[in-house]
Amino acid sequence: MSAKRLRKFRAVLHQRQPDLTVVMENVHKPHNLAAVLRTCDATGVLRAHAISADRSVRAAVHAAQGTHRRVPVIRHPDLDSALASTRDQNMQIIAAHPTTDAVDYRDVDYTRPTALLLGSELKGLTMQALDTADQLVNIPMHGLAASLNVSVAAALVLYEAESQRRRAGLYDAPRLDETLVRHTLFEWAQPRMARYCRQHGLPYPDIDEDGDLLYQPATGALS
Fold it and tell me: 146 pLDDT band (50/70/90 cuts)?
């Protein structure tokens, strides 16, 4: 770790969007999940949500090759629990689904608090998810294919959201609470120590301007 690297981390966190997220309903293929998370990171999404009744999402997150450490994935057993936190933040639920009653994805106001709902690779979104959404959006298609890969669709919608938010100035000033920034900086700069502290119920130690520990936790040695 270096002071330059820590400054880069802080600069990235200062552009994170706490009111922009992705909810993936049964998206389980590792390469798709990893691609969605990379786009989330690139467009400033703070955290993502994944719905899966089995352990497939856990395996896919593990295969995402570290991106999930920058964009944590919160796993949920069902749609209701996944959307509860988005509703608490008054987010509009935008479902990407190619239907005749969906609007062009560029015609939505993404400067509002927004959760993008994505369906599984094979079946798309469930009827419950479609009924829950505030707005259905589609991506215009002029060829024979009926839809795009879920990670490609996510990238198009998220970059439209990024474009609108950038023009509205939502990336110009920090939007995260400083306590959350310090907490996340520690997890990025000291992932092994952060894991140890979580396992032992210890508060995170302070770090210096180079990301190095100012003191060691009082309990035990690193595992």
Answer: confident
